[in-house]
UniProtKB/TrEMBL annotation:
Residues 586-745 form the Outer membrane cytochrome MtrC/MtrF-like domain. This is Decaheme cytochrome c. The lineage of its organism: Bacteria, Pseudomonadati, Pseudomonadota, Gammaproteobacteria, Alteromonadales. CDD domains: Cytochrom_C3. Gene3D superfamilies: Cytochrome C3. Pfam families: Mtrc-MtrF_II-IV_dom (PF22113).
């Protein structure tokens, strides 16, 4: 193509561009927004936005004019500007850091205790009375605010509040009042929402933003972070669709209160409403009861496992104390709906920093306020759960005794979780797992067992002066591991010297001697393995895990429950791997019973014992309610209840056999050979299993027992006969199959 033609094309293009530009004003604009035939705002209207986010958030307050100005950009996840937002889409709260002594009320002592004056987060605006913060521009609680929202340009907004703060307590309309203090860090929290069709709120798209500043309107970091938000996010997620869809009846879904349907999943946002001094009241018609409505009180109460309604109906939430001496944090029914509240309130370290943390070792995502949970600085912390029944009405409250300073281990960190094993009462309860008995010698002369053993705690010998009621029991199981205990337990009192060396001579019960001294079998003793169980009490020093001596037979400190572990030895005194036959693996028990196998109120029953220790008394068809009956007892069985208790049923159903049994609850899996039934009697093995419940007056009346007994005899079973009589072949499993057992045993 020639240069001549190229030049003509360039000239034509230039003329065309000039003609187009002629349609624009001299300022280069393409006309006013919204004019007919002209482009409108570039972005998306808030009613059509699929997500809401803020950027470039900024706030400043003028004390002279009492005016708050908040500016921000509103965009979607992709950064596209969102236009059309109005004040109806926005919620704004403002607060500042304060000292707890500022949270005073009419004719009421300051919230702070004499020795402490914590930093707290306070609100400038309150609901009526003592409840938490109120939103600005709210005609009910902040009628003095004069509010306007202007869209400066597409997606950029200015929120102006004149007469932003109440100037007097009377104007604030609540019992709490905080004057403006420019020496403290200030902050605002803003919520942005949009409406869906039918005037429903789009909770999934709801957005929360915060901004902090200090003197001179200089931007500041978040001033108080007790917990990293990620700690909460591990369980609480904004994606809980079911919770977000709730518009009312908030208590119907337990995650509502930490979903976007109720101010999100961030404790930072929660703290703007549930300020550190917030109080709620409940009236029973005569008395008005107060309880903490702070973020701290709320979180600890929720994680007791109680529902919101339950919390109002127990202990200090409805009366001073509903159950004297009881702690509402632990006696409430556990609420485990859909995995909610997996952490117990008592498990402080699930959320808080370790009690050994210092300001120098604090994680980066928290402030030094994270250390306060074990500083024991205010009685309100205790009363969130415990009420005021124990000196709580005194001005010094709980912390005059319960502190974590100067070697005192009665404070919250120690009493609730951290190093609780160092405490005397907890240490006493766990003596069975902390003190070991090692059998160093055993001999059998046909009548007696002579046994030697060492008692140690860690690597230290335990002096006999710190122990009492030291007793050794002996029983036997088949050497092939196919049986339960086969005789009456034999027992005798042992002695332990100051070096922790114990000795005992145990006369064999006649039923045990008969097994080991079979005249027709000279090596009969080799067919059995001995179960040796030493049990004792220990004296544990107050406020420590150290043992101390009994003096004149009395322990001046804390006496442990009976502690015991069972070991298996051959008749020659050698350690054996053989164990009592069990239908449920011990590991299945310890999966839940991580700390103790016994949960009961009587403090001196066996604690931290293994199943074999329990079975020394609770035999297959024994002289006390058997292991089977104890474990399976349901709520309808008034005398003994274990896994059938309502609070246990909240964790798993008794009808879920596989929780405990590894496919081993068939009658074909019972022990082999005659089973000891107490008082020198024996039952055939399948009969022993059924008789544990069906022939026990602990669970059934005489008529049902008689019918079950007749059925067993008609089918060839033997109940409480001689050893020879009980050596029969049974066929109960022909009809009583695994499926039928599960079908007909509805334990719940």
């Amino acid at each position: 193509m020639s240069d001549h033609n190229n030049n003509w094309k360039k000239l034509a293009s230039a003329l065309a561009v000039s003609a187009l530009l002629a349609g624009c004003g001299s300022d280069g604009k393409d006309g006013s927004d919204g004019e007919d035939g002209k482009p409108g705002p570039i972005g998306v209207h808030i009613s059509q936005a699929d997500s809401l986010n803020t950027s470039n958030l900024f706030a400043e307050y003028s004390a002279e004019s009492n005016q708050l100005v908040v500016e921000f950009d509103l965009v979607n996840t992709n950064g596209v500007a969102i236009h059309g937002a109005t004040i109806d889409n926005l919620t704004l709260k403002m607060g500042r850091m304060a000292l707890e002594s500022e949270a005073t009320r009419d004719d009421v002592q300051p919230m702070a205790e004499p020795l402490h004056n914590r930093e707290i987060w306070a609100s400038y605006h309150h609901r009526n009375g003592t409840r938490g913060s109120a939103s600005m521009c709210n005609t009910s609680y902040t009628p003095y605010n004069e509010c306007s929202v202007e869209e400066i340009e597409t997606g950029k907004y200015r929120f102006v509040v004149d007469h932003a703060l109440p100037t007097t307590k009377e104007e604030g309309g609540a019992e709490f009042f905080f004057a403006y203090d420019d020496s403290q860090v200030q902050g605002v929290m803003m919520r942005v929402q949009r409406k869906l069709a039918g005037d429903k709120t789009d909770y999934d798209a709801t957005h929360y933003a915060t901004y902090y500043w200090e003197a001179g309107n200089v931007e500041a970091e978040r001033p108080k972070t007790v917990l990293a938000d990620q700690t909460c996010f591990a369980c609480h997620t904004a994606e809980d669709v079911k919770a977000n869809q709730y518009e009312s009846a908030r208590d119907e879904h337990p995650t509502y209160r930490m979903s976007n349907a109720h101010y999100g999943t961030s404790t930072e946002v929660c703290a703007f409403c549930h300020v550190d001094y917030g109080i709620r009241t409940v009236s029973d018609g005569e008395n008005t009861i107060e309880y903490s409505h702070s973020i701290k009180g709320l979180v600890h109460a929720i994680h007791t496992g109680a529902t919101h309604s339950d919390r109002r109906g127990v202990a200090k939430f409805d009366s001073v104390i509903a159950k004297d001496g009881a702690n509402p944090a632990f006696f409430l029914k556990f609420n485990n709906e859909e995995g909610v509240y997996p952490q117990s309130t008592a498990n402080c370290l699930a959320c808080h920093v370790d009690y050994t943390t210092t300001e120098e070792t604090l994680p980066e995502d928290v402030t030094y306020h994270a250390l306060h949970w074990f500083a024991d600085q205010d009685k309100q912390s205790c009363q969130n759960c415990h009420g005021d029944y124990h000196y709580g009405d005194r001005e010094e409250g709980c912390i005059s005794c319960h502190s974590s300073y100067d070697g005192n281990t009665r404070g919250g960190a120690f009493r609730h979780f951290s190093d609780h094993g160092m405490e005397s009462r907890h240490s006493a309860a766990t003596v069975g797992s902390n003190i070991d008995v090692d059998y160093t010698g055993l001999s059998w002369d046909g009548t007696n067992f002579d046994i030697q053993f060492n008692v140690t705690k860690g690597e230290e010998a335990v002096s006999g002066s710190a122990l009492s009621n030291v007793t050794v029991r002996v029983n036997a199981v088949a050497a092939d591991g196919s049986s339960q205990f086969l005789a009456n337990r034999s027992n005798a009192t042992a002695t332990v010297n100051t070096n922790g060396i114990g000795t005992v001579t145990v006369p064999a019960h006649e039923t045990l001697a008969a097994l080991l001294n079979d005249i027709d079998n000279p090596t009969a003793a080799q067919d059995y393995v001995l179960a040796v169980t030493a049990y004792f009490n220990a004296c544990v020093s107050n406020k420590s895990n150290a043992l101390t001596d009994y003096v004149d037979g009395q322990c001046s400190a804390v006496v442990s429950p009976y502690a015991s572990q069972t070991r298996y030895l051959t008749v020659a005194g050698e350690a054996s791997e053989v164990r009592r036959h069990a239908a449920a693996a011990y590991e299945n028990c310890t999966a839940c019973h991580t700390d103790d196998m016994v949960v009961r109120s009587s403090g001196y029953h066996y604690r931290n014992a293994d199943n074999d220790t329990c079975a020394q008394c609770h035999g297959a068809d024994g002289y006390k309610p058997s292991m089977m009956a104890r474990v399976h007892a349901s709520s309808s069985m008034d005398r003994v209840r274990a896994h059938g208790r309502e609070d246990v049923q909240a964790f798993f159903s008794m009808n879920q056999c596989s929780v405990c049994h590894d496919n081993s609850y068939t009658l074909d899996d019972v022990s082999t050979g005659p089973q000891f039934s107490g008082s020198s009697t024996y039952s055939s093995p399948q009969t022993a299993v059924c008789a544990s419940c069906h022939l026990s007056d602990a669970y059934f009346d005489a008529a049902k027992i008689a019918a079950a007994d007749a059925h067993i005899l008609n089918m060839g079973g033997i109940h409480k006969g001689t050893r020879e009589e009980a050596s029969v072949s049974e066929s109960c499993a022909t009809c009583h199959t695994t499926d039928n057992i599960q079908k007909n045993h509805k334990f719940n």
